[in-house]
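Review session, final week

We close the course with one last complete record, chosen because it touches almost every idea we covered. It is Pyruvate dehydrogenase complex repressor, a protein from Paracoccus liaowanqingii with 263 residues. Go through it on your own first, then we will talk.
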Amino acid sequence: MPAPPVPDTPFQPIDPTRLSDAVVAQIEALILQGVLRPGERLPGERELAGRMGVSRPSLREALAAMQADGLLITRPGDGVFVAQVLGSAFSPALVRLISRHPQAADDYLTFRKDLEGLAAERAAVAAGETDLQVLDRIVQSMRHAHVSPDPQIEAALDADFHMAIVEASHNLMALHMMRAMQDLLRQGMLFNRPRIFASPDLRDRILDQHIAINDALQLRDGPASRAALEDHLDLVARTLIAQRRADDHAAVARLRLRNRADP
């Protein structure tokens, strides 16, 4: 008979029938649902076997099968980790190509507007109370970070907020696609998010927009949630274009200055 569920952990006791298959099914579901994230370390073998109520040999068999399937990786001396299962979504060559062409950032924001707008509208209906609490807490953290002179904190929370909206939509395809795109953004491949937050006036507007998105979600108003999110990403797109134009102008001005300084 399986042990009683363990509170405050995503790992639950396993039915004793075909133990290793049941372990695989549970961990696969946690990865697919986004509970276990790429790069996340699993608990140690003894702890994990205890949480799931299975023998260590059954657990080893399951973990070995998942490693063979490319879902888990072992780092000697460190443990077992969730593989970067979305790593192939953007090959290194494609990442380099994207980073060299500004049009990619524009297309990225357009695609995000479509994806996240739909996700926000869906989240207003599909989100559970816990999802809404997560969103509300992130916005409250944004309010606190807003008074800091360091834009890095608020920029990181911005990424978390947008990811939480997609998670709250409970659409698995949207979730994993958004995570793949967020990885590109966090690496600074498309544009410098902290730079956007460097302007005090723009930071104020972005915070107000995040509050408006959250307010609409808390009221479970789908059309308003989508409209607020699309307005926000439109602002980011306009800002990115303006920054790129300013950079181009500055580069030309430096060339003119250098040319005049030459004998």
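Two points worth writing down before the exam:
The chain has a mean pLDDT of 85.
Residues 198 and 253 are 23 Å apart (CA to CA).
Good luck, everyone.
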